[in-house]
Amino acid sequence: MKRSFIKYLLLAGAVFYGSYYYFSGQSNYQSYQFTNNQLTIETSKGLIQLTSYQENSLEVLFKSPQERLFPSYAKSEDLKPKTLLLKESDGHLILSSERLTAKIDKQSLAIDYFFDDKPLTRQFQYDFTNKPVRLDFSLADQEKILGGGQRVLGMDRRGHKLPLYNRAHYGYTTHSDQMYYSLPVITSDKKFTLIFDNAAKGSLDIGHTLQNQMRFEAVSGRTAYLIMAENSYQGLTEQYVNLTGKQPLPPRWALGNFASRFGYKSEQEVREVVEKFIQADIPLDTVIIDLYWFGKDIKGHVGNLDWDYDTFPTPQKMIADLKEKGIKTILITEPFVLSTSKSWHEAEQKQVLAKNEAGEAYRYDFYFGNTGLIDVFDNKAQDWFWQKYQFLFDQGVAGTWGDLGEPEVHPDDILHQVSEMNQTVRGDALHNAYGHQWAKMVYEKQRQYQPEQRPLIMMRSGFVGSQRYGMIPWTGDVDRSWDGLKPQVELSLQMGLHGLAYTHSDLGGFAGGEVFDQQLYLRWLQFGVFQPVFRPHAQDHIAPEPVFHDEETQTIAREAIKLRYRLMPYIYSLAFENSLTGMPLMRPLFFDYEQDTDLNGRQNIIERTDSYLFGDAFLVHPITAPNQTSITIDLPSGIWFDFASDQRYAGGQIEYALNPQHIPVFVKAGAFIPMVKPLNNLENYSTDSLQLHYYFAEEIEVSEGHLYDDDGVSSDTIERKQYESLRFTAKHTQDGLLIQLTKDTSLMTDTRRQIELIIHDFDAPKKVRIIRLNSGSDRNEEEVKNYQYHPESRQLSIIFDWHQEVINLQIEK
């Protein structure tokens, strides 16, 4: 009886907590206005505007008369309103954007959302008079919620209250509720996504305080959200990037191997490191120079934004010499200008630093020294900052790395001049948009200055939609340990769901470590082959580059890195697909196998991070614990092939013997994997000689694959359609196998390729015929005599030339 009474009191308190917010300061409905693409509701306290920018989505904006309207950082700049339908019934306004419906209660002003008449969520009444900003939504029983950006909490974030404040977490391992890149975004397993378009300091309470309620809260800023719904997670991701912006195609060299550490201390050291890679026959495309390029010491020099010519005496020649070897140069930059730096007096005089209330440069102490912060929201400060970048690009620098852009230390009472608003705004009100605005500045000004070059912009913090400015984030200063490796799949998957598809980790781990752990290092590099970006990086007391380790380590690392380069046609095609559709390179299993569950029923597949999909062909299972000789792997339904041995597996639980040379990687039956021969760097990349692997299984009647190709550097190949789109299809019939190769010949000049088609797990053929279909009725048919069949591996190899025609290969069993 006592226990029941306590439960009753707790329930009553929860109801009161919710009701107090919903009905205090209540706004009353007065009238509405409707055009074909916007509904404006006038209340006693302000306006509610509902707009659609694409099918199955709505933006909801709340405006009180006295409110300063913050800009939208989340939405893509080129959006145009779409047509809406409105019906009015007793007590309700019913607004529809295709299959998404908002039912607005005139009495309470609550909004119920439906997709194909299925309920999604309710947004309770908004209190215009209440600050901080608060928006409340209902949660259904058992509903799972993804999102919130970088956290180490598990895939389902329900039950957590997430701080929305970008903040460094040095040396994190298996738990973190606040990291470098928070996102005010959630995706429900009911197939809808909510974006809170507010960049201020805040929180996201996902059923933590009240079990079936979600609350977004921010200290100030824009009171707006976007809701979208679809039938699939893939469809939601595509909708998301259509609203927030698609990632521009990165330069192809950004997908190669990086030489990076904290940090190279001289020009001579940079040159020696590059030479070591060449001598060791380990492919390399990029060298990153950390903060020692502008100062001999860690402290006291941030903000110099110029070379230390004592240690880097001929930087322009160094960059040119590396470029001749096919190696690109990236430099680190920071948004802080120390009062001890060469740039302090100029920055202070030209008033490009964020200010205090007296209108002077705001100064404070942090790790690197006494500092000011460049005000990237001020157009005048942007112009000054850009001059420093232009100086570097003129010297031949190929890409930039923006560090500490949370910003790492950002007082609330610092004042930013926001040119878009023509207003001064406190630090907390814009904190999460700082890295976003910084990336936008670099991207847009570099595109104007070097219109033919694809920007490469690494940054560890940003906001919703930062991907449209080419941002490539990483997961920060992870601990150099097995526990640091364990959360990396979760971090990349969560970010990839919401546009940040190039999120990757410092391979090998960054922070700490007492001795070199060969096993950890190699397992992390092997995992990195199937990450969006391959970048070993660490504090330099233990070398992150394989060339500084023993011969065995170099041999295993070399094979992993060369595999990365051999897979470049596949990886680059994933990058292309991301720019076209928003599909991430690393994908959760529930994208394609939502109905699967673990055999022993431990967890729903939505929560799995032990394995992930790399594109639609590979399943990758990183090894995140030492000294294992075998592991249990739960494969999704279907037929899978071990990428290393070609052994065939049916979906389900398998015991897998581990090999130090590689991690478990599986290929889906029916998949096409385009590959090339190993390269020293991507300067010499070509698909003129292409190896095309097809994984045959009788159970797969029809399958297809794609390859995208272009020059790898031009900034507008997609817009101008200056690329090749190659399609491979396979049809299994009673008589054998038909493989068809087609391409859109309108997109590039003639390309002639030599193709080696390798069919895995296939019986010896009786006959192989090639049929070439040119334009019109021209048909050429011949029997192929010089194919090779390897009975021990059950692989069939067929070599042929491919020009512009359609190729049909008929293989009789």
Number of domains: 4
Distance between the termini: 76 Å
**Number of DSSP helical runs:** 13
Strand-residue proportion: 25-35%
Structural notes for this entry:
This protein is of the alpha+beta class. The strands form nine sheets. An eight-stranded antiparallel sheet has the order 1-2-3-4-17-14-13-11, covered by helices on one side. A six-stranded parallel sheet has the order 18-19-20-24-27-28. Strands 29-30-31-34-32-33 form a six-stranded antiparallel sheet. Strand 1 (29-35) and strand 2 (38-43) form a beta hairpin.
Layout of helices and strands, plus pairs?
Layout: H1 2-23, E1 29-35, E2 38-43, E3 47-51, E4 57-63, E5 85-89, E6 92-97, E7 100-105, E8 111-115, E9 118-123, E10 133-138, E11 145-149, E12 161-164, E13 182-188, E14 192-196, E15 202-206, E16 213-218, E17 224-229, H2 233-244, E18 258-259, H3 267-279, E19 286-289, H4 315-324, E20 328-333, E21 336-338, H5 344-349, E22 364-366, E23 369-373, H6 379-394, E24 399-402, E25 415-418, E26 423-426, H7 427-430, H8 434-449, E27 457-459, E28 471-472, H9 482-485, H10 488-497, H11 518-528, H12 551-566, H13 568-581, E29 586-587, E30 612-614, E31 618-620, E32 630-642, E33 648-657, E34 665-668, E35 672-675, E36 689-695, E37 702-709, E38 724-732, E39 736-743, E40 753-760, E41 767-773, E42 779-783, E43 788-790, E44 795-802, E45 806-812
Parallel strand pairs: 18-19, 19-20, 20-24, 24-27, 27-28, 36-40
Antiparallel strand pairs: 1-2, 2-3, 3-4, 4-17, 5-6, 6-7, 7-8, 8-9, 10-16, 11-13, 12-15, 13-14, 14-17, 15-16, 21-23, 22-23, 25-26, 29-30, 30-31, 31-34, 32-33, 32-34, 35-36, 37-38, 38-39, 39-45, 40-44, 41-42, 41-45, 43-44
